[in-house]
Amino acid sequence: MSQHFKEQAAVISSKRIGTDVMELVIKTKDVAANSAAGQFVNLYCKDGARLLPRPISLCGVDKETGTLRLVYRIVGKGTEEFATLKEGDTIEIMGPLGNGFPLDKADKAAILMGGGIGIPPMIELAKELKEAGCNKITAVLGYRDELFLNEDMAQYADVVIATEDGSVGTKGNVLDAIREQGVTGEVIYACGPTPMLRAIKNYGMENNLITYLSLEERMACGIGACLACVCKSKEKDEHTNVNNKRVCKEGPVFLAEEVEI
In this predicted structure, what is the pLDDT of residue 1? Predict the structure, then answer.
């Protein structure tokens, strides 16, 4: 895991890009310069009644300008507070946290699968894979109904869409879309809700595909100290000497065969 920093970041912009989906762009001193696709940052509320930070994945990283693009869903009081931020405000952050997606398979045809709020980290991953020389990237994006970030993804990848209500693309989930659209590749990168990742893990095993999963778990500290976000693992964890891995520390990205979900 890379070194992490705690700092006051300046808000560059904050806007709504979906019914309950927000985009926040912040200027950082050190965090952006050390960040990579698949990592996340902790955002801290100003309201002292909410002590625990909120982990938000990185949708975009610009090392030259020192900015991070964060896309999150409003789901509670903490994210409701973040949604009130405006240009010129500051917010306390810590990051980059966790281990991101490896780029050493950029010579292979990539399938990126994002479901719901698991879509944002796929944008930065697609950008970094393309910069690393990957010349075949297919992004399969799954939505309930309302689309977001699909046009951003189209800058870096061929985009296939699945919607639960069938309003756009394939009716169903990302695997339904892969089968219907005949999507092929050699390595899978995925982020989304656990049932989706479980199905993708099985699909990868059945088709002998290298599969990386970015797990979604409730986190408290974000740095591996509290053990609130452990998942079952194939190997024993050196920290606890049991078959657990800390999603915030050893993850959130794992090889599919490393974890039980």
Answer: 46
